[in-house]
Structures are given as C-alpha cells and as structure tokens.
Specification:
Two copies of one chain form a homodimer.
Chain A (H helix, E strand, L loop, with lengths): L1 E3 L5 H9 L4 E3 L2 H11 L3 E7 L3 E2 L1 H9 L4 E9 L2 E5 L7 E5 H6 L1 H5 L5 E5 L2 H10 L3 E4 L1 H6 L3 E6 L5 E8 L8 E7 L6 H11 L4 E8 L7 E8 L4 H8 L4 E10 L1
Parallel strand pairs in A: 1-2, 5-15, 7-8, 7-9
Antiparallel strand pairs in A: 3-4, 3-11, 5-11, 6-9, 6-10, 12-14, 12-15, 13-14
Pathway (chains A, B): Amino-acid biosynthesis
Pfam family, one (chains A, B): PDT
GO molecular function (chains A, B): prephenate dehydratase activity
Chain lengths: ~250, ~250
C-alpha cells in the first residue's frame, strides 16, 4: 500500500491501519499514478474537519477514471509541538495544513521564524537536525527521538483518509459521485432534486475549479446509501459528465 | 488600504488598482481585524481559477458579521521563475499556491531543493539573498532586482480579489450570501429551489467546515444579480444562519 511520505506522516499512520506492507511516495498525485499503473492499493487524505477538502486528492479522483474509493478511515488528528530536548526554540518547522490547524496556538508563542515544509514528518526531521521546533504527530516524535513541548489542543480535528484501488466497491453505506453541469439557472437544483425525491441525505458537497475553463466547476458529492443504478440513471439526465467513484464503509 | 504583504505580492498589485495609499499586513486575518476596527478598506484574495477558494478569506467573511464585499477585481496571474543573475540554481523558494499552480512546470526542472515560504514576494527576497531561484510576480522581479529565467505558462490563471469594508454595497450585478442549513435530506435543495424559481444563475457555491462541529458545513454562494429583499426573506425561511455579504461589480 502506498501513502504520502516521508515516513511517520499521518498518512503513514492511516496506511498502517490497513496493511503492514506500506511504501512512501513523494506526492498524492504519485499515489494515483502508481495505483492505476501497478493495480495496487493506495491511501490518500480526502478532507480535514477544520481545513476542508484536500484538493490534490479530489482533483486526481476526477482525473483518474479508473480509480475508486473502497474504504474511508476517519482518523483523529493530534498535533504536538516538539524539539530535540523538549525546550522552546527560535525556529519552527511546519507544513501548511498543520500550521493552519494550529494557528491560534502558534500566535501565542511569539516564534521568531516559521519555516514551511512539505509535511509534518519532514518538519520533525528538520527540527532534529537543526535543533529547532516542529509541529508533528506522536509517531514522528517517537521515531525521530524528539521530546514533546506541548500537545496542541485542536479540538474537532479529524482527517478522512480514502483507501483507493482500480476496483469499484458497491456495498458501503456512503457513496461518492463527481459531476459537471451546464452553467445555467437550475442546473445544480435539478441534481439535488433527485436526491430530495429519493429522500437521500447529502453528507458533503464541494465545488472545484475545472482548471481548463476559468470559473467553471465540477462537483464532488457524498451521500448516504450504497450504489443505486436507478439513481445514477436519473443523475445522468441532469449532468454533463458523471463519475461514480465507489460505495464504501467509514471506519 | 490594507493588503497581504510583504510588498510586491499579487495582493499589493491588486491594492494599487484601487488606491495609492496601501499598507502591508502579515496575514489575511489581520486585514479583516483592521478593516473592522479602523473602518478602513482592505483587499483580500477570494478565489483562484486553478486552485479554488482562499479558505482564510472565506472563513473570515463568515466570522466578521460587519464586513462586506464592495468590489471584486479579477486579475490575470503571471508567474515567473527568476534568480539574481537569471541562471538556474539548485534551490527554489516558493509559496504553497504558486507551487500548486506551477506544479507541471516545476516537475520538468529537476530541482534539488524546494523551500516553502509564506508568499511569492518573500520567495523573491530570499532568492536574492541566497542566490537561489523563486516563483514570483513581475512586480517582485522588478523590485528585488531579479532576472527572469522563464515565464511559467499557467494558462487560465486568475485570482479574484475582493475590496472589503464595513459598509454593505447593494447595487452590483453579483451578490454573495453565506448560510448554514439543517443536516437533513432536501435542506440544500430547498435553498436552490428559491434561486431556480426566481430564475437566478449561481456563479459559485462552496461548502466550508464549521470548525465547531466536525463534518458540519456552512455554504458560500455567489449569484447573478443585485441585493433583493424579497429573495433574502425567502432564503431566511430555509436556512438556519443567513448572512448577506454585499452586491458588487466585477472589474
């Protein structure tokens, strides 16, 4: 199973939930590429409860027609401020998301220098190397031999990770579709009407830029219930592009 | 007018479109704080055509009840790879968004070390100081005395900047509302039904985490047309919290 590295990232922890044969990659996009090419499993972050969707995962789900979500794992995220000797230092290494999730906490610290790096585990590695501070997971603290200065109290902080493969899954209690619609009054309304008539609850709806045309979007919609052929046929009539990306269980 | 600094950022360029008395801030959140407290103007990035919404701006629009959008400026974004002497170097400084917008271009460069910093202008400053490369605006290239290695061809790259103040604007041809709804089947459908019946086109809809309750959201919706009291009264009946954030012109 492939995950976003380097080692001891939250993605690493999520991957270990499913398998003990896990391999790091350099980016989320690389995971999609490998999963499609080698017909293996991958684990990617989908959405964080504080910061919202992970765009790179959503955009790749839309891009790769043959990759589906098989399971979703809802992981509680605990962030720690740490350093080599457990003491406050001048410089803090952090990644973009961990920084945003800890912003209130960081403001009160009066840190001289904040260095942005690509992941929480890279932050841990650099904090060790340069005798600085970092924001990272407990797994990273332990594996880089750091000491915790303080647990950052970020209540309600969860990340949903998706187990992806080239095989669609049909029998979970949550499903995801991606779609585009015409840019005209009522287009999105006509899609939602179908869910309303079938009495299906939506659990998530996001719009993402199409990138090829400015200010045009595709939609990312999760609903309660499993794969339903009749529902998808109705949706086909009111969308331009429609992609079913799997019915899955949330662990 | 206050903008996200340091100097020579794209926000700086956008601010100069409206005023020649412009002052940098350290964060988007700081702009909202100052605009409310001092009753002045601010300029904040709202959305990028490739990377989607700027979460910090959206979340602050929701948080600050007395701040409204007065104008939106749709600015074409041209990114440049630059260094002190115009030659390729080992290290690249970039911010998170510029990196995402240039990812395809960067992949082909075989760069040894990528350092993430808080803004494109900070990247330019560090590139000058450390004889490295950066991704930044033409304004930053000129003001830090750098030389362009190559224009990064990011087609369809635009950023919408909002001019914000403590006074609502009522007469533009676009309007924004923020709202929350009950988590039940048909809740969002009931909101969109009103726009459908009034034959009003939606130009943007995003959901954002509420942060206080995991996996609960507020919605950010832009529509064609100006402030309409009757429309807002209908919307009040189908939403829990409803915030009108201004009708404005797009420049």
């Amino acid at each position: 199973m492939y995950y976003l590295g380097p080692e001891y990232s939250f993605s690493h922890e999520a991957a270990l939930k499913f398998s003990n044969k896990v391999y790091p990659t350099k980016s989320i996009s690389e995971i999609f590429y490998i999963v499609e090419k080698e017909k293996v499993f991958g684990i990617v972050p989908l959405e964080n409860s504080l910061e919202g969707p992970i765009h790179e995962s959503l955009d790749n789900l839309f891009k790769y027609d043959n990759i589906y979500i098989n399971y979703v794992y809802n992981m509680g995220i605990k962030l720690f401020l740490a350093s080599k000797d457990g003491k406050i230092r001048d410089t803090l290494y952090t990644n973009h998301y961990a920084y945003k999730e800890s912003e209130e906490f960081i403001k009160n610290l009066n840190i001289n220098k904040i260095e942005f790096v690509s992941s929480t585990s890279e932050a841990a590695r650099l904090a060790k190397e340069n005798n600085s501070m970092c924001i990272c997971s407990k797994l990273a603290v332990e594996n880089y031999g750091l000491n915790i200065i303080k647990e950052i109290n970020t209540e309600n902080n969860y990340t949903k990770f998706a187990l992806i493969s080239n095989k669609p899954s049909y029998y979970g209690n949550r499903s995801i579709i991606l779609f585009t619609i015409k840019n005209k009054p009522g287009a999105l309304y006509n899609v939602l009407k179908i869910f309303y008539k079938e009495n299906i609850n939506l659990t998530m709806i996001y719009s993402r830029p199409l990138k090829t045309i400015p200010w045009e979007y595709y939609f990312y919609l999760e609903f309660e219930g499993k794969y339903n052929k009749k529902l998808l046929e109705q949706l086909k009539n009111v969308t331009e592009i429609l992609k079913f990306k799997g019915s899955y269980k949330i662990l």
